[in-house]
C-alpha cells in the first residue's frame, strides 16, 4: 500500500481511546475527519496522520468531559 505505518481499526481505536466499533460507526456516519485507507479485501487502515487528526478532533470533547 504505502511506505508508512498503517494501523488496523483495533489498533487505531486503542491509540485514540475509543472502541473499534466507535471508529467504524463514525466512518459510516461520516463523522471522522479522515477517510481510512482500504486493503484489497476491504479492511480499514489508518495512518499516523489519520490517528493524529482523530485525536485532534476528539480533544475539545475530552476537555469538556464529554
Q: Count the helices. How many?
A: 3
The rounded Rg comes to 12 Å
Could you name the CATH class? Mainly Alpha
Major sheet: order of its strands? Answer: 1-3-2
Give the percentage of residues in beta strands.
Answer: 5-15%
Per DSSP E runs of 2 or more residues, the count of β-strands stands at: 3
Element-level helix/strand string: EHHEEH
CATH architecture: Orthogonal Bundle
Overall spatial form: globular
**CATH fold name, please?**
Multidrug-efflux Transporter Regulator, Chain: A, Domain 2
Gap between N and C termini: 35 Å
Q: Provide the low-confidence segments as ranges.
A: none
Helix/strand-derived class? Answer: alpha+beta
Proportion in helices: 40-55%
Count of domains: 1
Calculate the mean pLDDT score and round it.
90
What does the largest sheet look like? Answer: 3 strands, antiparallel
Pick out its properties:
66 residues, globular, 12% strand, alpha+beta, three-stranded antiparallel β-sheet, Multidrug-efflux Transporter Regulator, Chain: A, Domain 2
Write the layout of secondary structure elements.
Blueprint lengths: L5 E2 L1 H8 L3 H9 L8 E2 L5 E4 H16 L3
Antiparallel strand pairs: 1-3, 2-3
Amino acid at each position: 500500500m504505502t511506505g508508512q505505518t498503517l494501523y488496523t481499526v483495533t489498533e487505531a481505536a486503542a491509540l485514540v481511546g475509543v472502541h473499534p466499533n466507535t471508529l467504524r460507526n463514525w466512518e459510516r456516519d461520516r463523522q471522522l475527519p479522515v477517510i481510512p485507507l482500504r486493503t484489497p479485501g476491504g479492511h480499514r487502515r489508518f495512518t499516523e496522520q489519520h490517528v493524529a487528526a482523530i485525536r485532534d478532533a476528539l480533544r475539545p470533547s475530552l476537555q469538556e468531559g464529554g
